[in-house]
Amino acid sequence: MGRVALVTGGSRGIGAAISKALKDAGYTVAASYAGNDEAAAKFSDETGIKTYKWDVASYEASKAGIEKVEADLGPIEIVVANAGITRDAPFHKMTPEQWQQVIDTNLTGVFNTIHPVWPGMRERKFGRVVVISSVNGQKGQFGQVNYAATKAGDIGIVRSLAQEGARAGITANAICPGYIATEMVMAVSDKVRESIIAQIPAGRLGEPEEIARCVTFLVSDDAGFINGSTISANGAQFFG
Ligand code: CAA
After folding, report:
1. How far is the CA of 178 from the centre of ligand 1 (A)?
2. Does 138 sit in the ligand 1 pocket, CB within 6 Å?
3. 147 annotated active-site
4. For residue 240, what pLDDT is reported?
5. Percentage of the chain surpassing pLDDT 70?
6. Please, what is the average pLDDT of the chain?
């Protein structure tokens, strides 16, 4: 059995592609999800990947979920903090609830995911942390003050963790996907999506597998000197 990898939000969208790619690369994968039992069961049936339900916005739930994964599969050596939500609105219409929900899930959720596994990684002198940020954390986005703040925050997190973990054999890197063909992007109106695609020199949305391949590269044993980096995968939309 390969190293154990946890992918949060790992049963849908980009996370599902990451879970599958890691399994194909020989890792033992646990995919967490927040609420969609039906999608998780379908994903598990199709892939044989174990799914675990908890809300990354809760520290206690994350800690308990991670303990369960480790009891089932062994110590988590690879963590992919992927779970994220959008609550888009222009700033003047954004409610404190929309702000807080996105901060709790996308930013505090990253802390809650990495913090419980960090001591074990330090003890074992090996760890791979990948945080899924976004092109919109690099460039900002109309309607996404909340989301962009969290995704910019991800970059600060990995740059700091990289310095703290380097001597213990732990790397922490961010991937900034551009617009990828997932339910999250499909949720914007057709008009907005068309205007987005017009801004992508590649002329198309990205595929989830194109992000998953970046993760497989970063978590490999061979990638030990790549630490604190940000990989942009956005079809030349933005150079961050
Ligand atoms: N730049 C400048 N002005 C813009 C604009 C933009 N990008 N988008 C909209 N506006 C303007 C509109 O033209 C309109 O102006 P007028 O009132 O003068 O006509 C005004 O802002 C209001 O626009 P809307 O009617 O669209 O406002 P709304 O409140 O109904 O909706 C919104 C606002 C929900 C933010 C909508 O614009 C939207 O969905 N935008 C897309 C946000 C986006 O890109 N989300 C990404 C989701 S995918 C993701 O997040 C994954 C990832 O990591 C990439």
Report:
1. 17
2. no
3. yes
4. 80
5. 100
6. 97
Which helix (H) or strand (E) segment is 121 a member of?
Answer: helix 118-124
What's the CA-to-centroid distance between 143 and ligand 1, angstroms? 5
The token pair that represents 70 in the structure block:
């480790």
The whole-number average pLDDT for the span 136-146 is 98
**CA–CA separation, 66 and 72 (whole Å):** 10
Tell whether ligand 1 has an atom less than 6 A from the beta carbon of residue 86: yes
pTM: 0.96
Strand locations in the chain, DSSP E?
4-8, 28-33, 50-53, 76-81, 127-132, 170-177, 230-233
Domains along the chain with CATH numbers = 4-231 (3.40.50.720)
Beta bridge partners of 32: 8, 52
**Model confidence at 196: pLDDT above 80:** yes
> pLDDT grade, residue 185 (50/70/90)?
confident
* Mutation test residue for ligand 1: of 86, 192, 210, 234, the one with most atoms within 8 Å of CB: 192
Predicted local distance difference test score (pLDDT) of residue 1: 72
- Atom 9 of ligand 1: nearest residue by CA position: 142
Ligand 1 pocket residue status of 142, Cβ below 6 Å: yes
77 CB near ligand 1 (under 6 Å): no
Instruction: Tally Cβ neighbours within 10 Å of residue 96.
Output: 7
